[in-house]
Amino acid sequence: MEKIKIGIIGLGTVGTGTVAALRRNRELINKRLGASIEVKRIAVRDIRRPRQVDLPPGILTEAADEIVHDPEIAIVVELIGGIEPARSYILAALRAGKCVVTANKALLAECGQEIYQAAAEAGTEVAFEASVGGGIPIIKTLREALAANRILSLLGIVNGTCNYILTRMTEAGLSFNEALTEAQKAGFAEADPSLDVEGLDSAHKLAILATLAYDTCIPLQEIYVEGITAVEPLDIRFGRELGYVVKLLALSRETDGGIEVRVHPTLVPEGHMLASVREAHNAFYITGDTVGDILLYGQGAGAWPTGSAVCADIIDLARAIRRGKKTRLGPPSFRQPRRLLPMEEVVSRYYFRFSAVDRPGVLSKIAGVLGDHRISIASVIQKGRDEGGSVPIVMITHEAREADVRQALRVVNRLEVVTAATKFIRILEGQHFAPSP
User: Fold this and answer.
1) How distant is the alpha carbon of residue 282 from its chain centre?
2) Which candidate in 205, 247, 326, 423 is catalytic?
3) If pLDDT is split at 50, 70 and 90, which confidence band does 437 have?
4) Is 190 marked within a binding site?
5) Is the pLDDT of residue 262 over 70?
6) Which three-class secondary structure state does DSSP give residue 27?
7) Which of 307, 309, 315, 396 has its CB surrounded by the most CB atoms within 10 Å?
8) Which UniProt keyword terms apply here (predicted)?
9) What is the mean pLDDT of the chain?
10) What stretches of 54-159 show up as alpha helix (H) in DSSP?
11) Which of 153, 147, 156, 146 is nearest to 206 (CA)?
């Protein structure tokens, strides 16, 4: 049987899952491929370190260049993460005429165009299904299954750590810090969780997905990013009373003014399918002009789900190699640069929670400021009585511009009757964002 040899750079969680998956289903993979996949070399930092998977003697090396420049290796699998030296290894492998598989979301978000161009110039391919969504085939869905669609909107719960924390805050009434500590003990959060809870991991993934969805380069630095560290249990409780669940969403949609790309906590209607995505799971809700609404759901991280996605890319590229080719789909296509809608121009409905003194006329003062800034109130909730003290006033608005909202809240927060900075959360409603009837 024909052998297709691969080299793996990195044997951490994903690398271990990849090797284990290739071994577990070796016979099935060989049958489907009509050839065998042989892991020839694996590059690691320290070959003496104990491994969670049994390996043949001599397969490990501390020199990744041995893999990149080995003429027998047809596919290089980069699983070390980060920008450097991963970028250099991938570019060198592509220029050597090899196919590349990577799970490196940060690298693709920041250097994707350079890597795709290098692959095109070398007549080879970089595959990256595992970079977003773990075992969920979101990349394949956008590049292949929905190739005939104009993507109207794409919504994602793309960070399992944040979704776990918000689930525990919602269902158990925990504070952010309590839920984070629990997530760390359960292995869902890193010791330093800042990349996740501040929304940066979600932004990396959104940059990749929006680039594919809209056939244009989405610069990472132009994505609006807001994490979950400021979400409070009180706002979660008020949200549920109003029929919403708080989720950290990665959102993109095509508008007349440009493409929206943003990451932030969002009040999702309880009837929307994304509202029921719990704990560390990921989900993608896509609306295409031809296909309508579809939902992809599953495990978004971990050795086995992500390893499964890496293996799928290896098999796809191996099929192309067996046909005498080094490319299957080629690099993503980019049309002319398209305008990204500044956050100030985004239109949304909003949840406000004001902390105000409990005396007559307060509500009218706040409503007056909002009206002066073209913000219309849809509903109001005022809880409790504390004569002379502070009480929460919750409002839901009709659609308003982000710039108007921010300007209005600056004025409101200076009112003598307002005792603390106003909390606000955007609401998932409007064209292409509401669930199908």
Assistant:
1) 9
2) 205
3) very low
4) yes
5) yes
6) helix
7) 309
8) Amino-acid biosynthesis, Metal-binding, Methionine biosynthesis, NAD, NADP, Oxidoreductase, Threonine biosynthesis
9) 94
10) 64-68, 86-95, 105-122, 138-140
11) 156
DSSP H or E run through 22: helix 13-24
Cβ-contact 251, 153 below 8 angstroms: yes
The mean per-residue pLDDT over the stretch 260-266 comes to: 98
Which three-class secondary structure state does DSSP give residue 129?
helix
Residue that has been written with the tokens 């990472």 in this structure: 220
Of 429, 411, 432, 413, the C-alpha closest to 421 is 413
**Tens-digit pLDDT profile for residues 121-139:** 999 999 999 999 999 999 9
| 15 assigned to a ligand binding site | yes
Residue 34: Cβ-neighbour burial (10 angstroms; 0-12, 13-18, 19+): exposed
Torsion of CA 150, 153, 159, 163, to 10 degrees: -150
Annotation-wise, does 67 bind a ligand? no
Region of residue 58 (left: phi > 0; alpha: psi -120 to 50; beta: else): left
Written as one string, the DSSP assignment of 375-417 is --EEEEEE----BTSEEEEEEEE-SEEHHHHHHHHHHHTTSTT
Q: Is 368 assigned to a binding site?
A: no
Of 99, 147, 146, whose CA–CA distance to 124 is shortest? 99
- Which whole-number Å values give the CA distances from 64 to 6, 12, 60, 85, in the listed order? 13, 15, 10, 10
Q: Check the CA dihedral 68-89-213-15 and report its sign.
A: positive
* Residue 205 falls in the annotated catalytic set: yes
pTM: 0.95
First to last CA, the chain: 53
More confident residue, 274 or 432: 274
Q: Any binding-site annotation on 126?
A: no
Q: State which amino acid sits at residue 181.
A: T
* Phi and psi angles of residue 410, each rounded to the nearest 5 degrees, phi first: -65, -40
Tokens 């499964």, residue located: 308
CA-wise closest residue to 354 among 240, 249, 238: 238
Distance CA 49, CA 63 (A): 15
Closest CA to 169 of 179, 177, 161, 159: 179
Both tokens assigned to 304 = 């086995």
Summarize pLDDT for 342-400 with one digit per residue, the tens: 999 999 999 999 999 988 889 999 999 999 999 999 999 987 665 557 899 999 999 99
Check whether 33 is labelled as a binding-site residue. Answer: no
**13 known member of a binding site:** yes
